[in-house]
Amino acid sequence: MVAVITGDIINSRELPAQWMATLKDALSALPEKNAKWEIFRGDSFQVELPMAEALLNALYIKACIKTIKGADVRMSIGLGKVTIASEKVTESNGEAYINSGEGFDMLKGNKVNLLVKSPLPKFDEDMNLYLKLALITMDGWSPTASEVVKHMLENYNEKQDKIAQISGRSQSSISEALKRAHFTEIMELENKYRALATEIFKKWK
């Protein structure tokens, strides 16, 4: 079982030109170092990576993009097997790719910017409810909060004073930004996704 993230930048034509460099930098610096990614059709992208790492990396992409004022990203996480593997993710295929594409087509209709589609509808129903609630906060992340979340995900085992040094902000401002971003609760959701996906889909390995 792997995960495929299919995404695009919302209203990219209305954003400052820096969004493309920001997207490339985000994909190049994903927490999952063995991820394969590709940008296509201008503002769309796909990432193939281990199933358990999918949500963490999607959160990182969202935080990076939202450091740009007014920017946001739509993403679908598809879970499943890969039957045609290629060095280029856009030339690979299989259940994970199909689920990711079908999930991406559902985003606008469901009026959400992030969802999961897997072989198990019950898993999807539960996880997508959690994500919908989390998006109430995440879609409202300010550029400042997004930057702090980005630094936290890049240096996850570091303490806040170290993050303050890296970001050039005070420790109190880091703490306040993380509270506004509900970072602790978002990471609890990431841990929940990781545990459930690993447990539920272990028989698909």
Write structural notes for this entry.
With 205 residues, the protein is α+β, with helices and mostly antiparallel strands. The chain is built from eight helices and five strands; from the N terminus they run βαββαβαβααααα. The chain has helices at residues 18-28, 54-65, 95-110, 121-138, 143-154, 160-167, 171-180, 183-200, and strands at 2-9, 36-40, 44-50, 73-80, 114-117. It starts with a strand and ends in a 5-residue tail after the last helix.
What descriptors fit this protein?
205 residues, alpha+beta, five-stranded mixed sheet
| Biggest β-sheet description | 5 strands, mixed
Distance between the termini: 6 Å
Low-confidence stretches: none
**What is the H/E order?**
EHEEHEHEHHHHH
User: Can you tell me the overall shape?
Assistant: globular
- Overall pLDDT: 93
Helix-strand category: alpha+beta
Number of DSSP helical runs: 8
Rg, Å, rounded: 16 Å
The count of DSSP E runs of length 2 or more, i.e. the number of strands, is 5
Report the helical percentage: 40-55%
Placed side by side, the strands forming the largest sheet appear as 2-3-1-4-5
Strand content: 15-25%
